[in-house]
Amino acid sequence: MVWYYVIGIIYFLLLIAVCLRVIYETRSATKTMAYLLLIIFIPVAGMLFYILFGVNYWKIKLYNKKSTADEKLLNRLKKEMKVYSNAMVSPSELPAEDNRELALMLRKELKSPLTRRNSVKLLINGEEKFPEVLEALRNAKHHIHIEYYIYEQDEIGDQINTVLIQKAKEGVQVRLIYDDFGSPNISRKTEQKMREAGIGIYPFQKVLFYLLANRLNYRNHRKIIVIDGQTAFTGGINVSDKYINNKPGKLFWRDTHIRIDGPGVYYLQYLFLADWNFCTGKVIIPEEPHFSTPAIHKDDHFLQVAASGPDSDQPSVLFSLLQAIYLAKKEILITTPYFIPGDSILEALRISALSGLSVKLLVPGVCDSKLVNAASKSYYEDLLCAGVEIYMYQKGFVHAKTLVADGNLSIIGTANMDYRSFELNFEVNVLVYDREFSEKLRDVFFKDIEEAEKIDKDSWCQRTAYEQLPERVARLFSHVL
Predict the structure, then answer these.
(1) 163 and 130 share a domain?
(2) 228 an active-site residue?
(3) Whole domain around residue 40: which residue ranges?
(4) What's the pTM value of the predicted model, to 2 decimals?
(5) Can 401 be counted among the known catalytic residues?
(6) Active-site residue among 129, 143, 223, 257?
(7) Of 58-72, 129-143, 162-176, 303-317, which range is least confident?
(8) Domain check: are 10 and 82 in the same one?
(9) For residue 430, how many other CB atoms are within 10 A of its CB?
């Protein structure tokens, strides 16, 4: 009987301690209340759930060190690279006045330089991306830097590996970072073969069983390739055959990527070097070829990068999307495979639609996660009632992450419009301030909605409570999806 009271007292003290930690460490009042209710009303299991998925242990202990190291690297690069001063421009030089506040925010508060004289190419699906990537890799002279969430050992993965091994044997510096959770198919045999060829290959945080939950919470979702400090690729397309629509009967994957040539590559290079130094513990001393003088391009695309993760002081990806929405005057076109926006994005879109802007959202009709899809649908009614048009893609699975505002701003990248991308994952988006490029992406959006089914507001809002129940329940888990 005495032990019963002792255990009860210990549990009560532990409960108080965990509740205090929730109150002090959780910024969102909604999340704080949800965690408190879970911990209090579901004994033991609720507390265990919070400890496994809610505690930011790695963010506090590990990523604070990364953030400090990244800051030192960025400051050193700014001092050492003469080309930086020539490539950086002021937001006042932007051709579209409406976007100057956005560019200023990213440059001043989030330390992302605005560059011009960039050549930018839109790449639709794996059919357009991978031939461009393979050609660029074969032309590499000094270094190849690759960072991916999913890196499959399938046909396209083997093709890229073959080129990387060949380039390494030719003396090109090849470095590869892969996410250990997203790329489970990279075997020890593959790693050994690549290392024997001279390739540096490392996982971004090895997933260990006893640290499984916390490490799974913070994944490297970036897709970056940088070649000779001159050319870069990023976007939604991972290294996998499923992104190449070349076989009948196969699920069609609709995705978007971007190729950059010019000084806009510099910040992507910085991100890679910072991530490399973090996950390998081997500091790369920047050389001139890493940030070489860019080739002169006839194109003059203004470009900026928004990157964020658990190591960020500010949620750059979220803030840049919000500012883009609020600065829009006429039209907002969004494509995202996972739509769990949170209050800030949801309210921004509703306000824009209620203010008379044309707001269109393209989401999957076919989704690879039923739980995420259900949670996404729980937000549709509020948007539809505000005047947002929602389209569900029917041709296959739409995996692109893009935004076009007023036909003069384009955002393409790795970040989904969900809580995980905004707060938990390492993500990167590219902002292109250019009307000609944005019109191309706008045309792609309208071509995509030809393959989509528009949701009828009246029919959607008249669904029974029984039909809506799974969506409402799934929404409760939005912060961990």
Answers:
(1) yes
(2) yes
(3) 2-55
(4) 0.88
(5) yes
(6) 223
(7) 58-72
(8) no
(9) 24
